[in-house]
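job 3f2a | input accepted
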Amino acid sequence: MSKLTYKSYSWDKEFEIKGYFSDDKSKVVDHESNSGILTYSPNEIILEIFGEFSSDGEIIADFGHPIDKIYGFDSHGKLLILESYGSPFGTDNVPGFPLRKYRIKNFKIFDINYQLFPNKNNFKELIVELIDELEDTKVQYYQFSFDHLEDWIGKSIISAERDFKQRNFNIAVNISDYQSTEVLITSEDLKFKDVPSYIFSYDALSVEPYYRIHLSSPTDRKVSFQKCYDTSIRIKELVEMLSEKPLSFETIEFLCEKRQDNNWPIIKGKYFVQHSRKNIKWDKHELHKISLNKLGDNFEAIINNWFDKSEQLEFIVRSFTANLHGTPYLEDSFIDSIRNLEVFARNFRGEQRADISKAEDINKQRVFDFINKNIDESFKKIFRNRLKYQRQDSDLRKKLLDLFTNVPGKIGKNKLTETSISSIVKKLYDSRNYYIHGDEKSKYKNLVTDFNEMYELRTLCQEVLRFYIFQELGLEYDEEY
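job 3f2a | predicted structure (481 res):
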């Protein structure tokens, strides 16, 4: 386990925080609090308590509620607010006292300059006041980073020069001329800005740049932490959709209070949750066209379209990103790709009405006439409604046909002719119905069972979906994406 400090805590590292914890905010810095160790790793967050909380006995006896909030004070004076899954999942005993373990959903750790508070003489009361204020966290600004953020932004702050004789090699860092992309996310009333910085090591004589996305109110008022967090997730999902890469947060940090005279932080914090991580390669050449730098002035329209249409895209994005982060079976991801096209067609292309021939319409009316003349009154409505009923999936062929017909003639190195589109739609339709509804395979003559073909069709469906999503965002689709 790494020995880290508050400054170096990040989502991609494992670390421990030692301190005192209590389920009662008034006892965090009291002798009644329990010493413990909070262990963070991407896979899980565990709090081990030496002793037990006062409410543990009530929970075990079924007289109390599970512990939702736990408060902590670490060995360096940092304040913690943890959200627990409830009752302890593990108990043990060592000589003299019990040991309790809690699974933690998420936690915030606050770095506080206590000297700048008027109630500093009564430290216990000050802690309670601070917890009351910070539980519903409001922030001056919110910053976050995720995997390959530097690559996605695509703006360098480091330049290098070498003379012709190659005897001198100069490295320069230039932040003053850095051109940040500043846009207003209108639906959230939040300002987006990319912010660069760097770390210089005197020991290794090295410079390491790092970047953050900065969210704040356009009017400099405080905003809800939860609102910023939800917004940052959707920004990360946008980059995942553009790049087809699973991304994870690396840091989430925020400022709650600052001095008015010199902007010095009074209360700042970091946020952590359990999450999945994948080590991925980011090809700068392949993905340069979707970089923030390359998108330029178009980015404001793109990100606002993304947020404005978030409700219509929610199901698709959730399914798409889940497949990126997980390792689904090919059949599952194949069906998801078809379902996503179906949802997109319903939300963005309008309902596709089934075409009824004139002969069919005439004969349908004859059936209605027969019902009206020959069926008992109590059953007429039932049979009429059955004739009017139309299966929802009966329009799937038309939805898929519409989507595949209107993409460019060449996409994903597949030439989509009228014949090939008809064949593809039949295969997708039968495969979707078989895997969704289940039945004898013999009833689905176009069912895809060959894994190579299934993989190719899944890739094609995903590419067609991305083409239309790019179109909705106002971004020209390129096969190189």
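job 3f2a | The first helix runs from residue 56 to 60.
job 3f2a | closed
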